[in-house]
Hints:
This protein is mainly α. It has helices spanning 3-12, 21-46, 56-83, 94-110, 121-128. The N and C termini lie far apart (78 Å).
Amino acid sequence: MDFKTYASIVLSSGGDATGSPAATTVAAIVGVLAATGVLIWVFGAWSEQPNALNETRFRRRILVSGALLYGGAALYAVILVVAGSEPVQSLLGLPISALLVWFFLRAALGTKVPKDVSNRRDATSNLEK
Length: 129
């Protein structure tokens, strides 16, 4: 399929690229590249804080966020299959997602978070007296 044919499909369908499998593939690739760009931008913002990854609370938040991300995507895939809008073969990657959720949650629960005395109310109220 050349560019003129692709452009005519996209323009004739009002901008919706569901007219052909190639257009769907291109839309998926562009979507993945955009999501990757957003993730790189977010992780780049974390690089401004050099000690942030060494802090256990921050590390635990990252791990729990990763587990929620993969768990939410897996749940969304299951909902789409149950609704009938996606084929059952879409669930082939579900064990990998479940394994990643398990890994992230196991690592998050294994991260020891020290009790910070400076954030406790009773400790700060005793210092003011």
